[in-house]
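hey so i finally got around to running the thing on that chain from the lab meeting. sorry it took forever, my laptop kept dying and i had to restart like 3 times. anyway pasting the input first so we r on the same page abt which one it is
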Amino acid sequence: MNEVRISGLTVLFLGVALLIFTFICAYQFLMGVLEIAASEDLMKLFGEALAPLISYAVRTLYLGIMGWVGSILTRRGVQILTATEKAEKISGKTKATEEQAI
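ok and heres what got predicted. didnt touch it at all, straight out
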């Protein structure tokens, strides 16, 4: 049971860390600290008007996928932790009923 709890905590903290990293990246993208490098061919191909739109779409997809994966990891970590707590309660109750039966 202890190994399952440790793996649940690990998954939970990985998910939370990924969510925190996503929000830090989003803030830096919003403030203009981070930039996604675009090649000159892309800007010439789609023109000056579409290049910023494509750049923002890539940023949105990048942050959306990172947030999605972080939330899935966080949810799975919480599910593992709650499942181990329920299993510990059930095993504690069965031990108590066995001791009363003896």
